[in-house]
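Q: Is it fine to ask for two folds in a single conversation?
A: Yes, each is treated on its own. Send the first.
Q: Here.
A: Result:
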Amino acid sequence: MLSWPEQVVRVQSLSESGIRTIPNQYIKPLTERSVFKPGSQVHQHADIPVIDLHNLFHKDPALHLDTLSRISAACRDWGFFQAVNHGVSHELMGRACQVWRDFFNLPLEMRQEYANTPATYEGYGSRLGVEKGAILDWSDYFFLHYLPVSLRNQNKWPEQPSSCREVVAEYGGEVVKLCRMLLRAMSTDLGLEEKHIENAFGGDNMGACLRVNMYPKCPQPELTLGLSSHSDPGGITILLPDRGLARLQVLKDGDWITVNPVPDSLIVIVGDQIQVLSNAIYKSVEHRVMVSSAKDGVSLAMFFNPKSDLVIEPAKEVVSEERPPLYEAMTFDRYRLHMRMKGPCGKARLESLKFNTP
């Protein structure tokens, strides 16, 4: 059975110990830090797409098509967008964030009951990847399976706080509805049958996982990251961002852009499997997370992925002589193994799938 290569240290415990300098294993190379990257700049404000999804449900075809075109442009040009009027209860979003804050505020020994291993990553963790001596991210997390139902094991979900399991189930149900709606909109825009992407991912057996990120306060935030640069290996991610603090950065045309969350928004992130299936018409976005010396943060990322044993490849409808398939076919289980073994590393895994073209 896979195990962690070194003793796991909880970043929250480090933060709460009052240290003034961070341990060497968290110090990123100069070129990876959030404020220093030769040849690139960090922008605080840009024309980041914000899409009102209300009209996606609208019977008026003109309003529906306008929303679809906005989603299309965001997925092609940015690889993500902020969604408002998305149908997920704002009150439920607040409860979901709070219940996980309460979990991370439990005594360490209670959290440790859910300590995870790299075999499945389910439970309470503090690192991605199993390489000994790797440079680590300044974050802890809790990872759990939501779909398919056959993989859902609520005994592995926190028993405390007492409302946690109920809130996770309710929040997950609403976000799944939103995900299916978005996948159908993407299929339609790509000229595919409405449920094409959904079915390619397994239909009712599509995977959904929740990763709750805890970013503790950091005494030297300029030296590290909460989550290193990566693209999400799955289909799409629906992120409930930390309220009141801009932590997420996306890479656009060589520059890192800080995303200031719109109140009550959810952030929709295109993953690598959508880039493959669309034959790079849609782009997955490389992103990372900064940390703060002033405030900790909690965010909820719901990942929607193909069923692990399904082969994903460019859809035949988006392939032609002029646009041949760019990527080799691969099961999602094999694809995501790279992230689980090596941790986040930009878009290197996706690039490795490309066919060699003359």
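Q: Second one now.
A: Result:
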Amino acid sequence: MKHLENDSFTEFILLGLLQYNPTHFCIFVLITMMFLFTLTGNSLLILLILVDCHLHTSMYFFLWQLSLIDILFTLTSVPKMMTNYLLHKEVISTSDCGFQIFLGLALGGTECILLGLMSYDRYVAICKPLHYPLLMNWPLCRQMAVSSWTSGIFNALIHTVCTMRLPFCGSKEINHFYCELPVVLHLSCEDTLTYETGILISTTILLLIPFSVILASYTLILVTVIQMSSAEGRKKAFSTCSSHLTVVSLYYGAIIFMYMRPISSHTSGQDKVASVFYTILTPMLNPMIYSLRNKDVMRALEKILCKCLLYFKM
């Protein structure tokens, strides 16, 4: 009978992030501005890295991959949320819901691995500069990137299929602004304890292993930086590493809070706040942190602007 009820489910109801009042409308405007800034900033960063030959290094190769993920991650949830709010619409089809779950898991898992690779890249660049061209050669960087995308997509595919095959009965309301795995599992009328264990195992692999690499890399970097004789070198290394750690702290903190707790302990308010961090906030901050504080990127931007000015003057 439960499976029959599940078969009749063709849509869910997204309750959303915002209510219809003046305060929440101001928040909606702020989110819209953040969304546009995310798309513009990350797209510009990708363009600069691809166009400027001085940015064709492993660090910037991983960085434009990160920017691409941030764009796609934001597009997965924010446009739907904005449309629903403006049109007073709350319905999402089961297929669209499953697609959101898949993209969220695929992009989130890929970004976790990618942040670990970026920290390893910085470790090699700072601690083993003479071996950097050998250890971080182009074929290896491409293999690392492909492996991170493949792992994220494979993990997402398994969990999306398993989740959407669960029997859903009773309420169709998802108290969230997009379909996310832990929130959708709440609606299942089947015991999901065994499946939650599987989620915890895959989360441990995709989150804690890269996070351990990040902690180990930056610990070794810190030791090396302290031993540097050049004050300018220490300042540059600290600036680069602090930027990376800012992103990592915000992103990993929210993801771990969301995916490494029992489903029964989740509350809608906490889930929404955590999701805002990695779907809206960190994608907006990444281009600011990696470009405004980076001389190479700013130099590439100046070149592009100068060429544009010369073109329009002609």
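Q: Anything structural to flag on that second result?
A: Two points. Confidence is low (pLDDT under 50) at residues 1-7. The radius of gyration is 21 Å.
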